[in-house]
Amino acid sequence: MSRRGRRDILAIQSYTTFSQRWLIPRLTQFHDSFPRIEVRLSSSIAPVDFEMQNLDAAIRAGKGNWPDLHSEKLVDVELIPICSPAFQATHNLKHPDDLSRVRLLHSMARPTDWHAWLKRVGATVDPEPGIRFESSALAYEAASLDIGVAIATKVFVNRHLQAGSFVAPFDMTCYSGEGYYLTWPKNISPSLPLQKFLVWMREQIGEDENR
Q1: pLDDT over 90, % of the chain
Q2: What is the DSSP secondary-structure string of 138-174?
Q3: Is 31 helix (H, G, I), strand (E, B) or coil?
Q4: CB–CB of 78/176 below 8 Å?
Q5: Which of 211, 181, 146 is nearest to 71 (CA)?
Q6: Angle (deg, nearest 10), helices 154-163 and 136-144
Q7: Residues 6+ apart with CB under 8 A from 112
Q8: In sequence order, which residues have a C-beta less than 8 Å from that of residue 41 and are 6 or more positions away?
Q9: How confident is the model at residue 46 (pLDDT cuts 50, 70, 90)?
């Protein structure tokens, strides 16, 4: 849809999992604060082409080293295995090596996460077998249905761990060296809606860090 002549639209592209697990639960707060800004949130794992796409900003995963973009880190990628309480009760996972006897759930968008975590904790488990899903969000959904153990970005599942709908069988995390960033072109001044969104995002991150 065209945004020509509209200065109250904020068009953001994000990953499905980031949107579902971090952004969408908070968006009502932004809309309550700025009800005249129409947020248009789209989802894709493909790289953003700001010259061709009608976007104000995009949320990307990486190390923030995109030479043509401003990038502001939102959250770190800290990895942790998760499963349902029922799955944990059935399989009694106590040590990372116990993962060799259960099904691993993978995200094709983040194909090296299991390998990174298992290496970090020194587990002798083959990271390749299991079921692969298009996104981490689908892997989390499968974990909630007692299908196996998913490798999660901790900030995306904190609310569910606190609520008890997910459990972390092992108190071991692994920082991947990556983060999720809000990005926009260096050669374009951010729109007023984007400026307000950026201030709001910083407030959300600060609240997360203080919890």
Answers
A1: 70
A2: HHHHHHHTTS-EEEEEHHHHHHHHHHTSSB-SSS--E
A3: helix
A4: yes
A5: 181
A6: 20
A7: none
A8: 12, 13, 14, 19, 23, 24, 27
A9: confident
Condensed to tens digits (0 to 9), the pLDDT of residues 93-143 reads: 999 999 999 999 999 989 999 999 999 999 999 999 999 999 999 999 999
Residue keyed to tokens 């959904």:
141
What is the average per-residue pLDDT within 138-162? 95
Interval 187-206: pLDDT, tens: 888 889 999 999 998 888 87
Question: At residue 7, does pLDDT exceed 80?
Answer: no
CB < 8 Å & 24+ apart, contacts of 111-116: 113/79, 113/151, 113/176, 114/151, 116/79, 116/174, 116/176
- Helix residue ranges, H only, the chain: 16-18, 24-33, 85-91, 113-121, 136-144, 154-163, 192-210
Closest CA to 80 of 146, 17, 151: 151
Nearest to 86 by CA among 24, 148, 43: 148
